[in-house]
Every structure is written in structure tokens, then in C-alpha cells.
Hints:
With 157 residues, this protein is an alpha+beta fold. The chain has two domains: 1-76, 2,3-Dihydroxybiphenyl 1,2-Dioxygenase, domain 1 (Roll), CATH 3.10.180; 78-148, Roll (2,3-Dihydroxybiphenyl 1,2-Dioxygenase, domain 1), CATH 3.10.180. Helix content is 19%, strand content 36%. Strands 5, 6, 7, 8 and 9 form a five-stranded mixed sheet that branches. A four-stranded mixed sheet has the order 1-4-3-2. The longest helix is centred in the first third of the chain and has 11 residues, at 15-25. The chain is globular. Mean pLDDT is 88; it is low at 148-154.
Amino acid sequence: MITRMDNIGIVVEDLVGAVxxxxxLGLELEGRGLVEGEWxxxxxxxxxxxxxxxxxxxxxGHGRIELSRFIEPAVVTDHRAAPVNALGYLRVMFAVDDxxxxxxxxxxxxxxxxxxGVVRFEDAYLLCxxxxxxxxxxxxxxxIGAERADPPATPAE
Length: 157
């Protein structure tokens, strides 16, 4: 049995731009470094490699995104323009407290809505897919269910 999901990996060309985008979204930069050598290539199957990475952590401390910029070997395939129904891993979904504010803060960092805008799912969520720098696809969801919940009852005296 697994004990947790450690991280999701995203390969980028502009590591600095990607870090700034995810910082603005609310993730914290946990660390940066260079992963290189034959041992790393044995894990990935790429042989001798050099990869600059930045590990981003969600505010709750439970989720991470590993942003990677490959120096060697060169990137071989580009899936950034793939639609959401393409095979493979394509997006990460984040819960946000204020979707409108999040979208506004991310616009200067290259944010583009995938569709016509924000969609309401019943009385539960506001949802949208967006593309960030380099076409990184993410989902954003605001829980609006709490807005309709009745306040807790006050105990009778």
C-alpha cells in the first residue's frame, strides 16, 4: 500500500517563469537544485542526465510539484498544446479559496482560460481549466458548498 503521493512532475523550458507562476498560485518554493549523473539516469531510463529542478509545496504541506528543466538529454516531445482528452498525465487540480482573485493574480504570469470561463457545478464548485506559462494545464476549483450551508445551531440554554 502507498503511504502518500509525493509529487507530480512537470517538465518546463523556463524554470524561473514556472516557479513564479506557481508561487503566485500559492505554492512555496521548497528548494532548487541540480540532479545529474548516471544514478539519476538509472531511475529515469535516460542514461547520464543533467536536470535543474525546483520543488514547489502546497500550503498544507501535503502536495508537491517538481518542476524540471532538462539540460541533458534534450527534451524529445512536446505535449503542452494537448487537449484535456489526450492520453497521459495532463493536469493537476488545485482547490482555491477565491477563484476570481486567483485568476486575476495569475493573468500577468501568462494565464489563459481553456474555455469560455468559469463553470458552476451545481451548488458545490466553481471550476475552470487554465493554461499557465508554456501551456501548463491546471484545474482550479472553489468550493462554494460552504456558502449555502446553514450556520451551526446554537445550543439551547
